[in-house]
Write a structure and sequence with these properties.
Layout lengths: L3 H7 L10 E6 L6 E6 L3 E6 L8 E4 L5 E6 L8 E5 L3 E5 L8 E4 L5 E6 L6 E6 L4 E5 L5 E5 L6 E6 L6 E6 L3 E6 L8 E4 L5 E6 L6 E6 L4 E5 L6 E5 L20
Antiparallel strand pairs: 1-2, 2-3, 3-4, 5-6, 6-7, 7-8, 9-10, 10-11, 11-12, 13-14, 14-15, 15-16, 17-18, 18-19, 19-20
């Protein structure tokens, strides 16, 4: 448990931007660097050791940038962003402009997530009701999954199976997808009563995941069990828009 002094030392600074910030990702190679994405179509690179302003601002998207993620595989330092302009963009933080733009979605992009296993591979989830998988080395979409009959607000990769992804949608359901056979979902998890805003696989358990929703709840699931809903946490009093699972503490969310 952190002492009050340790907690205070964590919050020595804040960064200000002139528009709403929708997502944030930490650098995978520098503990002081992070990237935010905002409603004015821009990405901002910040250094916690230099609090006077962003190191760099990328403004190429023409609408809100709802998602940003830093690649997790070794040997590459790439960032992917997803926007309401229906495009995803690839960035190298050392380069002042995007490396590539990915087009194909027919609705706003809500989520862009790198594969933790396959270098240069990321997934995107969209209001066009599809999950799509992309390869940065090849133009065009690699795979299109018609995952829900509703807007998909979130997706995530399983940390233990390179072919398994989960989607969360406005239809209140979570669905698991095996990329080798997309005709039917591997699992469907029902229980939320409003749109699912974010879903995350556990870094420690292959079949465990967590979701949060506009129904104010956070729910924990094990899709390998006959009754997959493990727990419903109802401590929030407003829309629950984001969550993540600690990489260091098995029980911390």
């Amino acid at each position: 448990v952190l002492s009050h002094g340790q907690i205070s030392s964590l919050f020595q600074f804040s960064f200000d931007w002139n528009d709403g910030l929708f997502d944030v990702t930490w650098s995978e190679n520098n503990e002081h660097v992070l990237i935010t994405s905002s409603g004015d179509g821009s990405l901002q690179i910040w250094d916690t050791a230099k609090t006077e302003g962003p190191l760099q601002v990328y403004k190429e998207h023409t609408q809100e940038v709802y998602s940003v993620d830093w690649s997790q595989t070794r040997g590459e330092q790439l960032v992917v962003s997803g926007s309401w302009d229906q495009t995803a963009k690839l960035w190298d933080p050392a380069v002042g402009k995007s490396l590539c733009t990915f087009k194909g979605h027919e609705g706003v992009i809500y989520s862009t997530i790198w594969s933790p296993h396959i270098p240069g591979c990321f997934a995107s989830a969209s209001g066009d009701q599809t999950l799509r998988v992309w390869d940065v080395k090849a133009p065009g979409v690699k795979l299109v999954v018609p995952a829900h009959q509703a807007e998909i607000l979130s997706c995530d990769w399983c940390k233990y199976d390179e072919n398994l992804l989960v989607t969360g949608a406005v239809d209140c359901s979570l669905k698991g997808w095996d990329l080798r056979n997309i005709r039917q979902p591997v699992f469907i998890l029902l229980g939320h009563s409003y749109a699912i805003r974010r879903v995350k696989f556990s870094p420690f358990h292959a079949t465990l995941l967590a979701s949060c929703s506009y129904d104010f709840t956070v729910r924990f699931w094990d899709f390998s069990k006959p009754n997959p809903l493990l727990e419903t946490v109802e401590h929030h009093t407003e829309f629950t828009c984001g969550l993540d699972l600690s990489l260091h503490n098995r029980g911390q969310v």
